[in-house]
Design a protein that fits this description.
The chain is α+β, with helices and mostly antiparallel strands and 400 residues long. It has eleven helices and 14 strands.
Length: 400
C-alpha cells in the first residue's frame, strides 16, 4: 500500500538549481544595466553641460582656453560614443541618455565642428591662368629643428607670388616669453628671393613678387609705430598682424600676415610654482582681443581686394573669429578636405610628456585663410611640410 501526499504543495517539485541561477543572473544583469544607465546618463549630462558652458564662454572669458583646448573632433566623438553606448542601457535611462548625448552631438555639429561638408561633393577646381599663388606658413622658429636650407628649399618649390611667413625669429628654449630674438638675415633673404619685395614686422615676414606700396600698422601695431624704438621683445609680443598693400597690375591687393597670440605657452606650465595664471590668462586674452579687433576694424575700412592668412591659434570651435568670418570669406570654400587640419602639438626642447599627442597627423586646424572684396579663392590646400614645421602650409590660389 502506497501513501500519497495530500494538502498544499502536494505534487509540486522544488525549483531546479539551474532555474534559480538563471533568475539570479537576470536580476544581476538588470541591476548592472540600471547602474550602467545611471552612470551613462550622468556622463552625458556632464558632457552636455560642458559643451553648453564652453560655447557660452568661448572668446568671452580669459579662462575659456581650458574648455576650448579640446580638438573639435573630440567635441563630436565623445557625444557620439555616448549615444552609441546608450543602446546598452535599460529602462527610462536609455532614451534619457540617448537624448542628452544627441543634444551634445548636435551642438558640436552646429557650433564649429570643423567638418567641411561641401567637400563631400566638391572636386578640385581648375585654377585660372591669371591666378596668384599665396603661401602661408608658421615656420617653427624659422626651421629651428630642421635647418634653414630645408625651409628655403620647401618655399622655392612652391614658386609662390606671395609668401606670408610667421615665426621669422630666433627662440631660446627655457626662457619663455623672454627667449625671442630678432633674426637679422636680410642679405640671405635678398639672395634667396631675387626680384622679390620684402616687408617685416617683428616675427612676421612677407615676401612678394609685386611691389609693396605701403605697410600700414594694424591693431596694437599703431601704438608701437608711435613709440620710439620699442625693444624687439615688445614688437614680437604685440605686433601680430601685418598688412602689406601690393601693386598687382592696375589694382591694389591688401594681404594680412597674421599670427595671433597663443593663449598658453608650454614654458609657463609650472603648475606648482606659484605662477599667477589668472593674470597670465587675462593678459593673453586681452592681447588676443586687441589683435583680432584691430584686424576687424582695418578690414571694415579697407576697400581693396583682401587676402588674410596665417596662424590664428584658434580652432573652428572657438568663437574668437566670429567677427572676421562676418567680414571675409573662409578659403575653405575652395578646399576638398572633409576634415581640414593644420597643426599638431609638439613639445619644445625639454618636454617629453606629449607621447599621446605627438603624432604625424594633426589634431587641430588653427591656420586660416580668408578673402574679401574682389579677391576670389579658387583652390585652397593644407600641405605637409616634411617635418620642417608642426604646422601645415596653406596654399591659396586667388584672382582679383
Amino acid at each position: 500500500m502506497t501513501l500519497q501526499r495530500t494538502g498544499p504543495g502536494a505534487g509540486t517539485a522544488a525549483p531546479a538549481p539551474a532555474v534559480l541561477d538563471e533568475g539570479r543572473a537576470r536580476r544581476t544583469t538588470r541591476a548592472l544595466r540600471l547602474w550602467y544607465g545611471r552612470l551613462l546618463l550622468a556622463a552625458a549630462v556632464l558632457w552636455l553641460v560642458y559643451a553648453v558652458v564652453r560655447w557660452q564662454v568661448s572668446g568671452r572669458w580669459h579662462w575659456a582656453i581650458l574648455l576650448d583646448a579640446a580638438p573639435p573632433l573630440a567635441l563630436m566623438a565623445v557625444p557620439a560614443m555616448l549615444l552609441l553606448a546608450s543602446a546598452a542601457a535599460c529602462g527610462r535611462r536609455r532614451p534619457a541618455a540617448a537624448g542628452t548625448a544627441a543634444a551634445a552631438l548636435v551642438l558640436a555639429l552646429l557650433t564649429g565642428s570643423g567638418l567641411n561638408w561641401p567637400a563631400l561633393f566638391r572636386t578640385e577646381a581648375p585654377v585660372p591662368p591669371d591666378a596668384l599663388r599665396v603661401v602661408s606658413l608658421n615656420t617653427q622658429y624659422w626651421a629651428v629643428d630642421s635647418g634653414e636650407d630645408r625651409l628655403y628649399a620647401l618655399l622655392h618649390r612652391q614658386n609662390a607670388d606671395v609668401y606670408l611667413l610667421q615665426e621669422h625669429v630666433r627662440w631660446q628654449p627655457g626662457l619663455g616669453e623672454d627667449g625671442y630674438r630678432r633674426l637679422d638675415d636680410d642679405d640671405r633673404l635678398r639672395e634667396e628671393f631675387p626680384g622679390y619685395h620684402i616687408a617685416r614686422r617683428g616675427e612676421l615676414l612677407t615676401v612678394s613678387r609685386f611691389p609693396i606700396l605701403a605697410t600700414p600698422p594694424v591693431g596694437p601695431g599703431v601704438e608701437l609705430d608711435r613709440a620710439e624704438a620699442p625693444p624687439f621683445g615688445t614688437v614680437f609680443a604685440r605686433d601680430k598682424v601685418m598688412r602689406t598693400d601690393l601693386r598687382v597690375a592696375d589694382r591694389v591687393l591688401s594681404v594680412y600676415n597674421v599670427h595671433i597670440t597663443v593663449q598658453l605657452a608650454p614654458d609657463n606650465l609650472a603648475l606648482f610654482s606659484g605662477f599667477d595664471y589668472d593674470a597670465y590668462f587675462r593678459r593673453k586674452f586681452a592681447w588676443r582681443q586687441e589683435e583680432i579687433r584691430g584686424l576687424e576694424e582695418d578690414l571694415r575700412r579697407n576697400r581693396n581686394p583682401v587676402v588674410i592668412a596665417g596662424d590664428f591659434n584658434t580652432t573652428a570651435a572657438m568663437r574668437d573669429l566670429d567677427g572676421v568670418r562676418s567680414l571675409a570669406r573662409d578659403a575653405l570654400e575652395a578646399n576638398t578636405d572633409f576634415l581640414p587640419l593644420s597643426w599638431k602639438f609638439r613639445a619644445p626642447a625639454g618636454f617629453d610628456w606629449d607621447s599621446v599627442l605627438n603624432r604625424p597627423l594633426p589634431f587641430w586646424r588653427v591656420d586660416w585663410a580668408f578673402t574679401a572684396g574682389d579677391a576670389t579663392a579658387h583652390r585652397y590646400s593644407l600641405r605637409p611640410t616634411d617635418g620642417i614645421s608642426e604646422h601645415r602650409m596653406q596654399d591659396l590660389w586667388i584672382t582679383l
